[in-house]
Amino acid sequence: MLNVAIIGASGYTGAELARILYSHPSVSITAATSRQHDGHTFSEVFPHMRNLVELTCRNYSIDQIVDRADFIFCAVPHKTAMGIVPPLLAAGKKVIDLSADFRLRDVGVYETWYQQHSSPETILRAVYGLPELYKEQITKAQLVANPGCYPTSIILGLAPLIKSARIDTSSIIADSKSGTSGAGRATSVGSLFCEVTDGFRAYKVGGVHRHIPEIEQELGAVAGKSITLSFTPHLLPVSRGILSTIYANLLQDLSEEQLREYYQEMYTEQPFV
C-alpha cells in the first residue's frame, strides 16, 4: 500500500485527485493539507466525499507530510509549488506537482510567462507527466510535472499526426472550450454564475494564454523542431470538461480510416485515451 499526501487538497484539483486516489486499490490517503480549511474534515469541505475520505485537513507542515507519506501530490497554485517541492525531494519523497512550476524546461520561458523561479535547478529534474509520451521516464522520475488542461487535449490530439509527419506544422490552429472549474475554486467575478450562465466567450486571445509555451514545447519535442500555433481558449457555462477542435493542413490527402489508423497505432495500449 502506498501512503499518499495531497498538499492543497481543498481546491477542485485536490478534490478530484482525492476521489481518484480513493478508488485506487494500492493507495491510502494519509494526509491532506488546506490553509483555508485547517481543522475541518475533508467531507465537510466536499460533502460528496462523505464516508470516502474522512481525513482532517491541516495547515501545511513539511514534517507532518514527510512522516506520513511516501508519495506526495502538490495541488497548490502556480508560483507556490516552487517553494514547497524542493524540500520534499531533499527528504527523499516522490512528488507529482499539478501546477505549472516545473512544466517548462526553459527557465527563461517560465519567467517570461509567470514570474522569477526560485528553484530553477529543480526544473531540470522534472519529467513532463504525459504518460502517452513519457511513460518510461515517468516510472523512474522523482518529480513529475503534471500537464496543463488545454495542453493535454491539444498535445494528444496532434501527436500522432506530427509524429507521422502528416500535417504542415506551421498551420496549426487550436480552438478550445473549457468549463468554469478550470479557473479554480477561488471566487472571481469572471466565474460568477451571472457572468457565465447563458454565455460563451473567448478570453486571453492574441497569443497571451500561458499554456501556449507548454503546448509548443511538447509539440516541438514530438516533431523534433520548433513549432508555433494559434490558440484561442473559450469559456463555456458548464462546470467541467474541455473540447479542443484542432485544425491543420494535411501534407497529402488521407481518408478518415487512414487518419484513425495513426491514432490507433499510437494510443491503442494507452489506457487514459
Termini separation comes to 26 Å
Mean pLDDT: 94
Tally of helical segments? 11
Q: What summary fits the major beta sheet? A: 6 strands, parallel
User: Which residues form runs of ≥5 with pLDDT under 50?
Assistant: none
**How many discrete domains?**
2
Name the overall outline: globular
Provide an overview of this structure.
With 273 residues, the protein is of the alpha/beta class. The protein folds into two domains: 2-147, Rossmann fold, CATH 3.40.50.720; 150-267, 2-Layer Sandwich (Dihydrodipicolinate Reductase, domain 2). Helices cover 35% and strands 17% of the residues. It has helices at residues 12-22, 42-45, 62-68, 81-90, 107-113, 120-123, 131-140, 149-163, 193-196, 212-223, 256-267; strands at 2-7, 27-33, 71-74, 94-97, 126-128, 143-145, 173-178, 201-202, 230-235, 242-247. The strands form two sheets. A six-stranded parallel beta sheet has the order 2-1-3-4-6-5, with helices on both faces. Strands 8-9-7-10 form a four-stranded mixed beta sheet, with helices on one face. The longest helix is centred in the middle third of the chain and has 15 residues, at 149-163. It is globular and about 60 Å long. The mean pLDDT is 94.
